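Query structure, 181 tokens:
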């Protein structure tokens, strides 16, 4: 009997650990004043030569200020520098949705981290605060600490304070390889 309970416990634990969870993204947007009927989702990628590019990976029709971007396939890892944009009807230029940084109210972001989760975006595109993005733990971490985009937020403030104090010797320990202070 003890052997059967042990096997049952192992089976349940193993099954629970590898159970399929919803491994896709869903972005629901309820925003007013988007002057277009369609929006696009692009995200940063690297080609074989490690050059950056931003392919459009999804799109949605806007109906009454509401639209959903969703893909049934799973993302292997969060996609950095993801943007939602529309095409301006007059200039045909890409216009990016702007988000309020909830940790640094004076800062605005046009990109976020796309991950396998439910993300909600609400607000008015004409508001000086920008839209509110919720549901993305990765984007929250990036907005709060700013360590994922070189030269922003706390890292940038630390570099500026060291430069102002004339302590350039401490800078090499703060600089992310491939960037400059």
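Result returned for the query:
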């Amino acid at each position: 009997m003890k052997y059967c309970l042990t096997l049952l416990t192992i089976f349940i634990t193993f099954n629970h650990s590898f159970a399929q969870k919803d491994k896709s993204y869903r972005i629901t947007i309820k925003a007013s004043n988007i002057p277009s009927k369609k929006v696009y989702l692009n995200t940063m990628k690297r080609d074989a030569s490690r050059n950056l590019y931003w392919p459009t990976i999804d799109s949605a029709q806007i109906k009454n200020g509401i639209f959903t971007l969703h893909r049934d396939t799973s993302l292997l890892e969060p996609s950095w520098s993801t943007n939602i944009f529309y095409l301006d009807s007059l200039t045909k230029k890409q216009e990016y949705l702007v988000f309020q940084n909830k940790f640094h109210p004076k800062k605005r972001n046009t990109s976020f981290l796309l991950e396998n989760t439910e993300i909600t975006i609400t607000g008015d595109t004409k508001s000086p605060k920008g839209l509110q993005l919720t549901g993305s733990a990765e984007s929250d971490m990036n907005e709060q600490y700013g360590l994922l985009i070189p030269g922003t937020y706390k890292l940038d403030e630390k570099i500026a304070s060291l430069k102002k104090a004339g302590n350039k010797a401490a800078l090499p320990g703060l600089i992310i390889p491939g960037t400059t202070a």
